[in-house]
Amino acid sequence: MDLSVEESTDVNAATGGFSVHLDNFDGPFDLLLQLISRHKMDITEISLSLVTDEFIAFIRSLEASGEGWRLDQATEFLVVAATLLDLKAARLLPSGEIEDEEDLALLEARDILFARLLQYRAFKEIAATFNERITLADKYFPRVVALDPTLSALLPEVLIGVGPQRFAAIAERVLTPKVAPHVSVEHLHRPLVSVAEESRLVVEALRRSKSMSFRNLVSDAENTMVIVARFLALLDLYRQGVLRFDQVMALGELQISWTGSETGEVEVTDEFDIPVFLENDEANEGSVNE
Amino acid sequence: MSNVEIERSIEAILMVVDEPVSELTLAQVLEKTVEEVEMALARLETSYEDRGFCLRKVNGGWRFYSSPEFSSAVEKFVLDGQQSRLTQAALETLSVIAYRQPVSRARVSAIRGVNVEAVMKTLVTRGLVEESGLEHETGAILYKTTSYFLERLGLNSLEDLPALAPYLPDLDGLDEILDSLTD
Amino acid sequence: MSNVEIERSIEAILMVVDEPVSELTLAQVLEKTVEEVEMALARLETSYEDRGFCLRKVNGGWRFYSSPEFSSAVEKFVLDGQQSRLTQAALETLSVIAYRQPVSRARVSAIRGVNVEAVMKTLVTRGLVEESGLEHETGAILYKTTSYFLERLGLNSLEDLPALAPYLPDLDGLDEILDSLTD
């Protein structure tokens, strides 16, 4: 992901705002490290508020960028941002002795964040040495030569060492694509059903028939989600006063009659279609940008 | 058999092998002790210092390699084996696995602060990382590096990995705190 | 490029190249005259006089060989039981060739995820695998198993190889999967 962000804030009014230029950042730790190292600062409380401002500005700009951001990244960013914000708030308050539990918790949160950051930085630096090693290792070419015919004639009979069945099992294992195991999450990703869309279908059907049973109205529904969506649409339309429910007895047939206009736009709600995200790691599988 | 004869015999053998040979195998063939063979190998290693080739121990075995300074000349002959480069994300993930193995994907993810699923797949597909049983408590799949990983890094064994200590400040109990956090 | 550099470059090349290399080829690669290369080779030849290997010109090309004085050590190494049993890497490569023949080395490499050059050479040397024409599009050498392979596995014909699970992707499908993973 390449992002170049220009952000002006009044937080740093004295210097007339600042801009953030970051390339190829990879998660919140990565970003924090970049911010800290760009200011050539120790990870100290003094630098915290400046770094916090930049971090938050970065998150705002991500939001504003229109391309949105991924849930798993977003939650990580938010956790880090919230911790930073807490720490910044503590900086703004008059300094004094640690008085209560909350101050202690704040200090602990800072230590934990820094510890994780230090750990990440350690592996990032190691990764650089790995890269150097691989680059160097690629420059050594091994001597790989066939045995001289006079010598290969001396070789004892080769021992394959396994029978045909075992041999086939090896082939099967080698030929099977090496794909990391993957927990299917398709059941968590039911195709989204839009209440607004179903609402339009319901209005259309009712205008045509004037009166329908709920059973008929959902007879062509592919799954339960559609049935639920149409029911929600009915409730919303009822609230707008364009239809009437009749149910002779409890749990009996639900009859719906259209009382609204013959033509024209019916206001369609979108309150049911606002995405709700599950805070579940598995639900975001495969949606990472690496 | 004199020291020089041991050295010359080792040279003669390594000139015909197509895969790395361990000190033990050489010792058995030459009817010498492993120590004698090790010393001979060390002397040979030094004697090639100004040559266009060298002797290296990678992944537990010895063989001849061309010297890296002359790789550009060699590359004109050896078109094969040009490996595609690993991304920064793959390198970072690989280094976490190398130092924390066996390790679950969730833990690697926690240390890097991002979802590592796609990167882990790439590393497994490239043969650098493989499964290594299940974590006792959680049942999560554990991963470790392969012997091909050692070859690619030109390492003899995992013990030759650079120490993590200089990179990771030795704060008292840091590892324990981190463990409890990332579990 | 100094005389020493010419010598070192030649050493590096000859150490890893399997086929004998002519003076002309070396001269072209190093951008030197044939005379300069000849003189460098002569100096190198002399410099190996007390080594366990030597440089020899065979069939118009130069190549490293073990010195004849140490042939008994080399023969003992070759005859040693170590060499008669196939390694796991060789077995895996052999199984890919057996079930996907005729197949190029690049394809076997792609399936196994590692460079198989050394192992393929072993399999050819051991008479289990042989060349079988060229791939139409790429001109790459194709390999197939030999009748000696069938004999050693105790089979009458390739049709007697146990069938693999039907769900395994064929080569084309597999390549796509591999591509998509390593992108």
UniProtKB/TrEMBL annotation, chains B, C:
<keyword id="KW-0963">Cytoplasm</keyword>
<protein>
    <submittedName>
        <fullName>Unannotated protein</fullName>
    </submittedName>
</protein>
<dbReference type="GO" id="GO:0051304">
    <property type="term" value="P:chromosome separation"/>
</dbReference>
<keyword id="KW-0131">Cell cycle</keyword>
<dbReference type="InterPro" id="IPR036390">
    <property type="entry name" value="WH_DNA-bd_sf"/>
</dbReference>
<dbReference type="Pfam" id="PF04079">
    <property type="entry name" value="SMC_ScpB"/>
</dbReference>
<dbReference type="GO" id="GO:0051301">
    <property type="term" value="P:cell division"/>
</dbReference>
<dbReference type="InterPro" id="IPR005234">
    <property type="entry name" value="ScpB_csome_segregation"/>
</dbReference>
<keyword id="KW-0159">Chromosome partition</keyword>
<dbReference type="InterPro" id="IPR036388">
    <property type="entry name" value="WH-like_DNA-bd_sf"/>
</dbReference>
<keyword id="KW-0132">Cell division</keyword>
